[in-house]
Structures are given as C-alpha cells and as structure tokens.
Design a protein that fits this description.
single chain, 164 residues, mainly alpha, two-stranded antiparallel ribbon, 8 helices, 10% strand, globular, GH3 auxin-responsive promoter, acid-amino acid ligase activity, GH3
C-alpha cells in the first residue's frame, strides 16, 4: 500500500479530482468551480493562449516571480537560501534541479498530516497518486487550488485546439 503509515493521507485528503470533473472537493464540502473556469468558448481560450505566447519570455518571468512570491515561506525553498528573491538569476543560482525523490520527504510530511507550508505557501487540498510507471511505484502528487485551476486550464486549452 503506497499510503503512509497510519493512513495520514487517507484521512486528511480527498482524492484529486479528475481533470474534467467540475466539482472540487475541499475538506468534506463540495463546491462548484466558478462558471468562468468551466464554460468558455474554444475561440476565447485559443485567443488567450495566443496572446500569452506572443511574449512568452515575459510571461515566464512574471510566472516565476508570482510563484516565488506565493511560496517564499515554503520550507522547501527556504532551505536553499532564496530569501525572498524572485528574479530568474537568483532562482537559477540557488535552487538545484531536482527529481521527485528530492522532494519526496517533504511531500510525505504533508501526507502524514503536516499542515505547515512545507512544499507550497498555499494549503495542499488533495494528494493524487501517480500511475507508478516511472520507477514501478506510485508517487504522491500534491495539489492546491491554484494548481488544480492551472491543470484545468491546460485541459481546456488542449480541448479548444483539438476542437477548433
């Protein structure tokens, strides 16, 4: 059983929603995602994507800055001494490339019930299990509301281009 001893993830986190499921569970309550997240024309989605990709370098730098600002208090980032810096050069010089096994102890703490900002500054709302195809064993994948929304946007964009 890939779940942590004591059933930490089983009791605290609901399963991650399927990407096409418009209901997102938070705690014991279900809420409907805002309409603008679920109902959007293909052309609007494509236009937004094309607008963002016109200046992809700027969008990427803005995205990195936003991510680092939101997660400055996360233990994983603090250990590398980023100290609140949000520029690409600081990130590149401070944060090493990593693989899942590098962050696995932090994710396991979350799965075991640690509610401190361990891997992200925002609360982890669900844990999903990978299929286990990479190393033969499933891995926990943490989700927060923002990551779920971003994942849904990826699916919407893909759908829009396929159904253009």
């Amino acid at each position: 059983d890939p779940r942590p001893a004591g059933g930490g993830a089983r009791g605290r986190f609901p399963p991650a929603p399927h990407p096409t499921d418009h209901r997102h569970r938070t705690g014991d309550r279900a809420r409907i995602l805002p309409a603008q997240m679920t109902i959007c024309s293909c052309e609007e989605t494509i236009n937004e994507f094309e607008m963002l990709t016109r200046d992809a370098a700027r969008v990427q730098l803005d995205t990195l800055k936003r991510i680092l600002e939101a997660n400055a208090g996360a233990e994983y980032l603090r250990q590398f001494g980023l100290d609140g810096r949000t520029d690409a050069a600081s990130y590149k010089s401070c944060i090493p490339l990593c693989v899942h096994s590098d962050v696995e102890p932090f994710i396991q703490r979350v799965a075991d019930g640690d509610s401190a900002p361990v891997v992200t500054g925002k609360p982890i709302t669900s844990l999903s299990l990978s299929s286990g195809t990479t190393q033969g064993k499933p891995k926990f994948l943490p989700f927060n509301d923002e990551l779920l929304e971003n994942t849904l946007q990826i699916f919407r964009t893909s759908y829009a281009f396929r159904n253009r």
